[in-house]
Amino acid sequence: MPRIVRAAAIQMSPVLGDDGLGTARKVCQAIRDAAEKGVALAVFPETVVPYYPYFSFIQPAFRFGGEHLELYERAPVIPGPVTDMVAEAAREAGMVVVLGVNERDFGTLYNTQIIFDATGEILLKRRKITPTYHERMVWGQGDGAGLKVVDSAAGRIGALACWEHYNPLARYALMTQHEEIHCAQFPGSLVGQIFSDQMEVTIRHHALESGCFVVNATGWLTEEQIKEIAGDPTLEGPLRGGCFTAIVSPEGKLLGTPLTEGEGMVIADLDFALITKRKRMMDSVGHYARPELLSLLHDRRPARPVQYVGENTPSFKSPDEVTP
């Protein structure tokens, strides 16, 4: 039987300076708006809740302590009020939702991707394995436990954030699990046009190599937000451009017109017959692979600060083990 899933890549700006719930409320409204358009899968930008730490890109670390502490105060815990709110919206809409958040786990923040099923259940909570450049002063590192593809109401879904797509082994780890839809997230409003150009190449290449659909969402800053974050006209330039919200077919074709500025949605119907059409010719983890020559070792054990041994010692469950 034909299998078609309507997907939306959602480009949006965060809510700055509130209690930390404003962006989550905006996400829930976008879910409701997408549901009215028949969307079954919605992907939101990287750490859009409560907002991406743009301040860390334009300021030296010794100056952004105040902004970093504010992000701690607004960052959600998982599970918590933010995930409950989004889970309810996903459940009411019958929609699979992929959301990027700044996750607070006691004294550390993480760049975390959450996949909610159409029932509202959290199928996956994964942390970016290596924060990029300036991000290393903001977030901790994830582990191999999060490099996982999950079965959802929309299909088999994998996810990576931003420059994780430049780690070919991380991408291959998901490819070996036969992802049908790859959900990519980038911050947007960063670096300039070259970031958009690189992003397009990256997501189109992954679609071709993996033989899957790619739904990519980037954030967006308004001019007022740029001025607020920069605080200095000479620092505003690096916070413009760098948006490329788009959907790509397994043949590397752009479905619909990408969004490079402003808020909005790119919506496309994903025809899963195209996956087989692509993989019939080139299945990089099947008939086109040579595992006797080249293979990947993937350590899926959660990273833990302590291991308990013995019958009478307390049990410990890593936050990365939210789901099987």
From TrEMBL:
InterPro entries: C-N_Hydrolase (IPR003010), C-N_Hydrolase_sf (IPR036526), Nitrilase (IPR023919), Nitrilase/CN_hydratase_CS (IPR000132), Nitrilases_CHs (IPR044149)
A Pfam family this chain is assigned to: CN_hydrolase
CDD domains cross-referenced by the UniProt entry: nitrilases_CHs
SUPFAM superfamilies for the chain: Carbon-nitrogen hydrolase
Domain annotation CN hydrolase: ranges: 5-272
Similarity field: Belongs to the carbon-nitrogen hydrolase superfamily. Nitrilase family.
Name of protein: Nit6803 family nitriliase
Species assigned in the record: Acetobacter lambici
